[in-house]
Design goal:
By secondary structure, the protein is of the alpha/beta class. The chain is about 35% helix and about 15% strand. The chain folds into 2 domains: about 260 residues, Rossmann fold (3-Layer(aba) Sandwich); about 35 residues, no CATH class. The chain contains 10 helices and 11 strands. The strands form 2 sheets. Strands 7-6-5-3-4-8-9 form a 7-stranded mixed β-sheet, sandwiched between helices. Strands 2-1-11-10 form a 4-stranded mixed β-sheet, with helices on both faces. A hairpin with a 5-residue loop joins strand 1 and strand 2. Helix 2 crosses helix 3, helix 7 packs across helix 8 and helix 9 packs across helix 10. It is globular.
Length: about 300
């Protein structure tokens, strides 16, 4: 139980999940169609390994470390390990133009980038503008052929690291992460999240005033983890120890619906265009009405699949 003197930091959320939901699954449908599956206990150990690896790469407190990746278990590990180790997480949007992507990296003064293998070409295209990076960490077990310097494989980085870690004392009002807008009017504009704001947001989402995510739920969302902290849903799921399922790579409606069904998802989130594509797929299966309601019975987003 929290006291009035406790600092609200991200450490509390994942430590709660590891302690009280240790056997609850975290599942990723990888870009190649394979499935990775482990539990919160393993998740906690891998976070500790990553936190132990960061200082060995020379990263100091408050250094900004970026991710350029789609939704996955590995991205989730970075989501927690980087800020819980006292660094600042910067989620990069791979859909930005090359010029805007370089601008965001330069402006945030990123010291490293954790990147999906298929997104390496985006960094190679702006290599002359990101020469200040100390490291590029490729999510996976091997480093693909690349012209970028100082590249290491994620699994190699974690290998031989201890799975225990004593988190540093972190002020709850210190920066946890940075997210930039898409720059629809002028250059992208950065917003900083604090530990306190992120924890309060996660706890609010889990309440009835939010989306009522509880420990019996299974979340599987298509909201990108680089967009507004994925609405705070990964943090909220950890806060209550809910099962989390991730869809990695390019969106395919049929594959996503298959994943929702296979993992018995109880909660998802996406923009309306995604739901229209899912509704179309369900109609081909004969499991959705021919003409979805314009609004669901709760008055929520268009094309609710339960109507």
């Amino acid at each position: 139980m929290l006291s009035t003197t406790d600092q609200l930091t991200l450490n509390q959320l994942f430590e709660h999940a590891v302690r009280y939901a240790s056997d609850v699954p975290i599942v990723t449908r990888a870009a190649d169609g394979s499935v990775r599956r482990y539990d919160y206990a393993t998740f906690g150990g891998r976070i500790a390994q990553l936190m132990n690896a960061l200082p060995q790469l020379g990263f100091e407190a408050r250094d900004v470390i970026a991710t350029l990746a789609s939704n996955s278990d590995r991205h989730l590990e970075a989501y927690f390990a980087i800020p819980c180790a006292g660094r600042v997480l910067h989620t990069l949007n791979p859909r930005l133009s090359a010029d805007d992507l370089a601008y965001c990296i330069e402006t945030a003064e990123d010291k490293a980038i954790f990147v999906d293998p298929d997104l390496l070409p985006l960094l190679e295209a702006i290599a002359d503008r990101i020469s200040g990076l100390r490291a590029v960490v490729v999510f996976g077990g091997v480093v693909p052929s690349t012209s970028l310097p100082n590249v290491v494989a994620y699994e190699e980085l974690l290998a031989n690291q201890s799975d225990t870690y004593q988190p540093p004392a972190i002020d709850e009002r210190s920066p946890l992460g940075i997210c930039f807008s898409t720059g629809t009017t002028g250059r992208p504009k950065g917003v900083t999240y604090t530990h306190r704001s992120t924890v309060l947001h996660a706890l609010t989402i889990a309440t009835g005033a939010g989306v009522s995510i509880g420990p019996a739920d299974c979340t599987c969302v298509m909201v990108p983890m680089f967009h507004g902290n994925c609405f705070g849903l990964p943090h909220a799921a950890c806060a209550v120890g809910a099962k989390q399922v991730f869809y990695e790579g390019s969106f395919d409606p049929a594959a996503f619906v298959d994943l929702l069904i296979a993992e018995r998802a109880t909660f998802s989130a996406a923009v309306p265009t995604i739901w229209h594509a899912i509704a179309a797929d369900l109609r081909t299966r004969g499991t959705a009405p021919a003409r979805p309601a314009s609004r669901c019975h709760r008055g929520r987003a268009a094309a609710c699949l339960s109507c």
